[in-house]
Amino acid sequence: MMKRYDILKGPDGSLVEAIMDGKEPEDFEKLEAKSADTSTEKHVPYVERVGNKYVVKVGKEQKHPMAEEHYIVFIELIVDGVVHRKYLSPGDEPEAEFEVPEGREVWVREYCNLHGLWENRL
């Protein structure tokens, strides 16, 4: 069963985010977010509150690569059920700033074109 906020990957590589609970579309794979890095490439997104913004970075000690062949496609910040998203391109910094009110329930996730979906729940 597909749930709100699930990310699905189509056979052509397209990504779809569920906005309602329901049956998974045929031929789509539900992506399971990973939350622990065991390799030298860092994928877990980290968030901190800086003034009136949330700052999200991919890789705490070491930045995630942002090359043509390996990069972060998007970073999401979800605050009290509202999704904020920034799309990235090769050459960008693997980070995003979101000027939104401070929330009670905050989590972040990102999608790497090679290694899939990653999240960090606060």
Secondary structure elements and pairings:
Layout lengths: L6 E3 L5 E3 L11 E2 L14 E6 L2 E6 L13 E8 L2 E6 L7 E4 L7 E7 L3 E6 L1
Antiparallel strand pairs: 1-2, 1-3, 4-5, 5-8, 6-7, 6-9, 9-10
Keywords:
2 domains, 122 residues, Immunoglobulin-like, 3-stranded antiparallel β-sheet, mainly beta, globular, 4-stranded antiparallel β-sheet
* CATH superfamily heading of the largest domain: SOR catalytic domain
Global outline? globular
CATH top level class name of the largest domain: Mainly Beta
Which stretches are low in confidence, meaning pLDDT under 50 for 5 or more residues running?
A: none
The tally of beta strands, per DSSP, is: 10
Q: Which fold does the CATH topology of the largest domain refer to?
A: Immunoglobulin-like
What would you say this structure looks like, in words?
With about 120 residues, the chain is mainly beta. The chain has two domains: about 1-30; about 35-120, Immunoglobulin-like (Sandwich), CATH 2.60.40. Helix content is about 0%, strand content about 40%. It is built from no helices and ten strands. Strands 7-6-9-10 form a four-stranded antiparallel β-sheet, with no helix packed on it. A three-stranded antiparallel β-sheet has the order 2-1-3, with no helix packed on it. The radius of gyration is 14 Å and the shape is globular.
